[in-house]
Amino acid sequence: MSRRLLTGNGAAAWGARLSDADYVPAFPITPQTEIIETIGGWIGRGEWDARMVTLESEHSMVAAAGAAAATGVRVFTATSSQGLLHAMEMVYTVAGWRAPFVMVNVSRGVSAPITLGSDHTDVMAARDSGFLQIHCSTCQEVVDSVLLAYRVGEDARVRLPVLVNLDGFHLSFTREPVEVPDIEAARGFLPAFDPGELRFLASKPVSQAVAVLGGGPYSYFRYETHLAAQNAVAVYDEAASDFEARFGRSHPAVEAYRSEDADVVFYMIGSFATKAKDAVDRLRDAGQAVGLVRPRLLRPYPVESIRALLAGKRGVAVIDQNLSLGKGGVLHAELASALYGCPDAPRTLASFVGGLGGREIAAEEFYEMARVTREAAESGRTPEPRLLYTEDELRELRKLQGIAVAERHDTGAE
Amino acid sequence: MKTASRILGSAFFREGFEVQDAPRYGAERRGAPIFAYVRAAREPIHERGVITRPDLVVVADDSLVSVAAAGVLVGASARTVMLICSNDDAAVWRERLGLDGPVFTLACEPAPDDEVRFLGAASAGAASRFTGVIGRESLEHAIREELQDLRPEAVERNVGEGLTAFDEMEAHAGCLSEGTIRSAEAYEDPNWVELPFEGVEISAPDIHGAATSVQVRTGLWRTMRPVIDYDRCNRCSWICTTFCPDSAIHADADRTPRIDYDNCKGCLVCVAVCPPHAIAAVPEQVAVAADSEEAST
Ligand code: SF4
Ligand code: SF4
User: Fold this and answer.
1) Last residue within a domain, chosen from A247, A263, A285
2) Chain B residues with CB-CB distance to A370 below 8 A
3) Residues A68 and A102 occupy one common structural domain
4) Domain co-membership, A240 together with A258
5) Other CB atoms within 10 Å distance of the CB of residue A218
6) Do the domain assignments include residue A402?
7) Same domain, yes or no, for A140 and A47?
8) Fewer C-beta neighbours within 10 Å, C or N terminus of chain B?
9) Which residue out of A141, A277, A278, A288 would a mutagenesis test of the B interface target, given it has the greatest number of B Cβ atoms within 10 Å?
10) A125 and A80, same structural domain?
């Protein structure tokens, strides 16, 4: 094992290499491209024996990934933002094939307007597809999660594709110290994919994912896929325990940081969760019992762990780096549905939407979210959902609008 | 600057620090201003994103100081050390920018003709010395590691420049001080606002002015300049004008092609497609120098 500085993209590429993936269908998109460039370099120089094929779109890329996985080879691919959205038809389709492979998504806000900055609205769009989802908060987690993802997705109790998510820029282009496991140790944890009988061979053709006429059989197949996804909670726990035993790093389905005796808890996913840890430490220094609960596994949703970790808390500040237009933060809604009716559920779930399209979340904002949530828990009045947006930001925007208005005036439109 | 940040990050890492380094790209194009940041600590680093209160600011291109959008002074305070790669000296910059804190400069000599000069190694060398915790060997090792894909001579030259800058700044070793953490005890109100609903005529992301792209002088992005040799040009008039992806070549009534250098980005497509090879690619710096010589004679 060696500790070195790696970007999140570099870590994702290492995850693929240590997993001995056989086939890498690829299509470039910022901020993901560095992953396939790195892999392409390794394959090109003969350092890794795999086949990379560049496809003409993400839609074809995911179709190729699913088809290859159905033959029993190990497949790795990666995309981001609009690329994931473009692939969406095939994302749903290949999950229904029960073809396991790993796709890394480097989160980036979706259009329009266009941005390169990160948020999670892209990956939320794949939430209901049947892909499992693992969300990373450090570059270390990226390499480890790719290995975990294959172990879980390929398990006969699951057999589903897995998305490993990392944030654009804040992880993708950011170097951090990463322990890269030895290839032998990685193989010990993740042996070659054994598809068993469920494998397409030219000599032994099967028709996978055939047309189903009628809601009865259709419901059966869809619900079986749902049950398989739910099985992945237990399968993930097993895999994470084995991973910890072998590598000494713990990646529970839901991470809890100083939350045991906390009365107010931040609830969020992704790389900004490490900022929340800093905020928790500072708030603790200031005498406040604050913690962090962070699901790494978002699909399947580890409901039992979440309920247990939040039982008895007074308030939860749910921080969504995504926006379901016309509803609000997705994590908030999901958490509410998981906790509703539980006798010792927190009284207050305050909803904050922030960090959209690459916007940072400042330390002061974490402190303020903790304050608002604590007050709400005390008063029993849940605050309105809050977009993290400052006076300064609005002032800057007003300047841009001023230009737009002047332009329209000039062009005679007004 | 990405390279400089990686050299500094790697040097810190070799000295046993936890490190985070990252470039931040804006526009996806060559020559666009970029910046990068480095954090180092003895403990794992949980902070993320752009550094809002830097301990050290390194400016590799002194023309950026005056570009408001580059924001090189944002968050700088009296304890922030400034390092500017410039042929003007530190006193001039201190006065120009009204800075109270320590300012240092690194002179930039032009690179040998055929080499791209990386100010990265020199600025990382100086920055390493300022930290007071990075040794000469770690710096050298970091430069070699980060530049391993360059030609051996270029690596040696950069190692030399990095170490020279490191030695030059000996008197300022350890001039950097570590920033303090922002307490949650008394913090600045983030001043959140309620976003009001606004009509679609103002709240949709639209540009109303026509032909605004003409006003953006994309010619400033150019690193290579296409130059037409009119003795060789056979006035076909349609090939370069059609293939230029930026519509930056127009033909006069007599079919003579003219390049609009305000908007030519220097992609060199025209150079490749001209049948009689009448268009040459000249490094922009060389072309600019020739222009000013011409202007002064
Ligand atoms: S393509 Fe070449 S020959 Fe034709 S007009 Fe342009 S410069 Fe002249
Ligand atoms: S270099 Fe590119 S942009 Fe400039 S004139 Fe030639 S084709 Fe057009």
Assistant:
1) A247
2) 184
3) yes
4) no
5) 12
6) no
7) yes
8) C
9) A278
10) yes
Give the closest of B9, B49, B191 to A5, CB-based: B9
What distance in Å separates the CA atoms of residue A276 and residue A362, rounded to the nearest whole number? 10
Which protein residues are within 6 Å of ligand 2, measured from CB? B 226, 244, 246, 248-249, 259, 264-270
Task: Determine, for residues B206 and A404 on separate chains, whether the beta-carbon distance falls below 8 Å.
Answer: yes
Q: Are residues A143 and A280 in the same domain?
A: no
* A152 falls within a domain: yes
Residue A258 CA, distance from chain mean position: 23
Q: Specify the 3-state DSSP secondary structure of A165.
A: strand
CATH number at residue A125: 3.40.50.970
Number of domains chain A contains:
2
| Nearest-CA distance A374 → chain B (Å) | 14
Ligand 2 test: best mutation among B233, B246, B284, most atoms within 8 Å of CB? B246
Q: Are A171 and A338 in contact (CB under 8 A)?
A: no
Which of A266, A364, A397, A400 should be substituted to probe chain B, the one whose Cβ sees the most B Cβ atoms within 10 Å? A364
Q: Are A111 and A232 part of one and the same domain?
A: yes
Is the domain of A124 the same as that of A10?
yes
Ligand 1 pocket mutation, candidates B229, B230, B234, criterion most atoms within 8 A of CB: B234
Q: Which residue has the tokens 């828990």?
A: A377
DSSP letters along A240-270, please?
A: HHHHHHHHS----SEEEES-TT-SEEEE--S
Whether A394 sits inside 8 A of B195 (CB atoms) is yes
Q: Which domain holds residue A230?
A: 2-247
What letter does residue B166 receive in the DSSP assignment? Answer: H
Radius of gyration for the alpha carbons in chain A, expressed in angstroms and rounded: 22
Tell whether A309 and A325 lie within a shared domain.
Answer: yes
Q: Please provide residue A215's backbone torsions phi and psi, each rounded to the nearest 5 degrees.
A: -70, -25
Q: From first to last of its 414 residues, what are the pLDDT tens digits of chain A?
A: 689 999 999 999 999 999 999 999 999 999 999 999 999 999 999 999 999 999 999 999 999 999 999 999 999 999 999 999 999 999 999 999 999 999 999 999 999 999 999 999 999 999 999 999 999 999 999 999 999 999 999 999 999 999 999 999 999 999 999 999 999 999 999 999 998 887 888 888 887 777 777 899 999 999 999 999 999 999 999 999 999 999 999 999 999 999 999 999 999 999 999 999 999 999 999 999 999 999 999 999 999 999 999 999 999 999 999 999 999 999 999 999 999 999 999 999 999 999 999 999 999 999 999 999 999 999 999 999 999 999 999 999 999 888 877 777 776 655
The sign of the CA dihedral B125, B127, B128, B129 is positive
- Assign residue A386 the CATH number of its domain: 3.40.50.920
Ligand 1 centroid to B263 CA: how many Å? 18
Enclosing H/E stretch for B185: none
Q: Say yes or no for a CB contact (<8 Å) between B46 and A364.
A: no
Which pTM was predicted? 0.90
